Amino acid sequence: MLEKDISEKQINYLIKVIAFFWLLTKIWSYKTWIAARVYPVIPPLDFLKNVSGFVHLFLFGFSLLALLAVLCFKTNRWLLIALFFSEVLSCSLDIVRWQPWEYMYLCFLLIVIINFYKPKNTLVVSHIFLVSIYLFSGLHKFSRDFLSIVWLNMILVDFFGFSMDFILKYKLFFAGLLLPVIEVILAISLLISKSKKKISYVLISMHLGILIFIGPFGLKYNSVIWPWNVAMIFIVMIIYLKPIETVNKNILLSNLYWIVLWFVMPVFSLFGSWYQYFSFNLYSGKGDQMYICVYGNEKELKPFFENKSNILCEGKLCINLQNWALKEIKSAPIPEIEIYRKIGVYMKQKYSKHHLKIILYNLETRKSVEL
């Protein structure tokens, strides 16, 4: 009975932590959740294009109130169900809302709903989910894109301030592969080791390192994921507060749908056949950047023009979609070609195709394609 009470307390802490940081993140990125903005609202399904802006606002408001209620009152299963469906409905109106942190919080929420009266199973399934997050986050970083864009440019040059001569002299370029190797080893160790609590300390240190790297005292980049990394620290602490039940055949079979979603489908993302954010492709440097060359006088786009001229736009005004999204809606664009194409169609319809040129550019291969 005592063990059950401890598990229930862990789940209660887990729900409160998720509710708090989810609420904080949604408020910070509020323009992601409403239609009154310049950044394109692109629903996954075309028939949802003309949904009123009031619906977006209502769902956003409902989610905030539901998260507040979860945070302030005793956990209620029906409230969690209502919150889950309101979030799914909101995400169905705009694809950019399917951020990796949103997907993670929804998964945790559904785990709790399904196992509401089985707290020990909630902890075990949450543990399996964390293994998947760290495993595929690491696997996606095994690429030259990660080494060039994230490791070399962001970490060695921008963060540490090393010169290229210094990097070449000490052969630091391929040392970046240690990061994904460590992340994958930690994920596997988390699954098979009996010292999960010790491994959790290393994971907490990793998230602290990420916060130092991109946080307010580092590169000041992508601020919306700062609270997510803090949330991950608390989530890891809570889940591994007490020993986790060993994952056996029966647990795997009874949670087969989660195994397929978290361990089978993400494999396809390595070949471009599953959404990158649904497999926690985070800071891998992979994928294309979208540039919008503006030839007309589009005043509402003016705040998002790049300061420097871009060779892709032949000296014309230029918008980098990633920088635009992070500046206005505090969320990164979904890095999928099909979504970029939809954004390109939207922009040409709204501003006239004669005023814009849409270009996809791969930083690693330096190849560009006009949409």
Write up this protein.
With 371 residues, the protein is mainly alpha-helical. It contains 14 helices and four strands. It has a four-stranded antiparallel sheet with strand order 2-1-3-4. The longest helix is centred in the first third of the chain and has 27 residues, at 2-28. The model has no long low-confidence stretch (mean pLDDT 91).
Write down how many β-strands occur, each being a DSSP E stretch of 2 or more residues.
4
**Radius of gyration in whole Å, from Cα?**
22 Å
How many angstroms does the end-to-end distance come to?
A: 62 Å
Spatial strand arrangement across the major sheet: 2-1-3-4
Number of helical segments with 4 or more residues: 14
Spans of at least 5 consecutive residues whose pLDDT stays below 50 are none
Tell me the β content. Answer: 5-15%
**Helix content class:** 55-70%
Question: Kindly state the mean pLDDT as a whole number?
Answer: 91
Summary of the model, kept short:
With 371 residues, the chain is mainly alpha-helical. Helix content is 57%, strand content 5%.
Write the layout of secondary structure elements.
Layout: H1 2-28, H2 53-72, H3 77-91, H4 100-114, H5 119-139, H6 144-159, H7 164-169, H8 178-192, H9 196-214, H10 226-239, H11 249-254, H12 256-269, E1 289-294, E2 317-320, H13 321-328, H14 337-351, E3 356-361, E4 368-370
Antiparallel strand pairs: 1-2, 1-3, 3-4
Helix pairs in contact: 1-2, 1-4, 1-5, 1-10, 2-3, 3-4, 4-5, 5-8, 5-12, 8-9, 9-10
Question: Which key terms come to mind for this protein?
Answer:
single chain; 371 residues; mainly alpha; 2 domains; four-stranded antiparallel sheet
